[in-house]
Amino acid sequence: MKTIITYGTFDLFHIGHIRLFKRLSKLGDKLIVGVSTDEFNAMKNKAAYFSYQERREIVESCKYVDMVIPEQDWQQKRGDIIRLNADIFAIGDDWLGKFDDLSDICQVMYLRRTQAISTTEIKASLATF
Ligand code: C2G
């Protein structure tokens, strides 16, 4: 059983998120997603349109996702990986290098982001709609 773990806000769920989950699901047998809580988003200076509960329900509904946990702080990844026996930590390459410190307990992978879409771009284009 190979377990993959990733984290994010996943606001305004879009094709970039789906393609990430689809690729991650092919790397192993179980995909765990840490969804940022509203409080942690505030620490990331991110204001999500949908609440944590709504974003969690959306991510849980994705067929590629096996388990969702709350992401409450920057420090929890190491403990989560050990507790959940994750073999791979993976995240988009906008975070390239940021989580290399986890490579002593799991494989760390940075996957290419899907181009030309982001929650920020969606909000901006809707604002001018
Ligand atoms: N992503 C992607 N392609 C896009 C947009 C996002 O592959 N067009 C990926 C990001 O690289 C990230 C994930 O989708 O791996 C979630 O993106 P965000 O919701 O923006 O999450 P972020 O704010 O980067 O939070 O501790 C890690 C942080 O919680 C990550």
Automatic annotation (TrEMBL):
Name recorded for this polypeptide: Glycerol-3-phosphate cytidylyltransferase
- What is the superkingdom listed in this entry's lineage? Bacteria
Keyword set, alphabetical order: Nucleotidyltransferase, Transferase
Keyword Nucleotidyltransferase in annotation: yes
An example of a GO molecular function for this protein is: nucleotidyltransferase activity
Q: Which residues form the Cytidyltransferase-like domain?
A: 5-123
InterPro entries found in the cross-reference section = Archaeal_FAD_synthase, Cyt_trans-like, Rossmann-like_a/b/a_fold
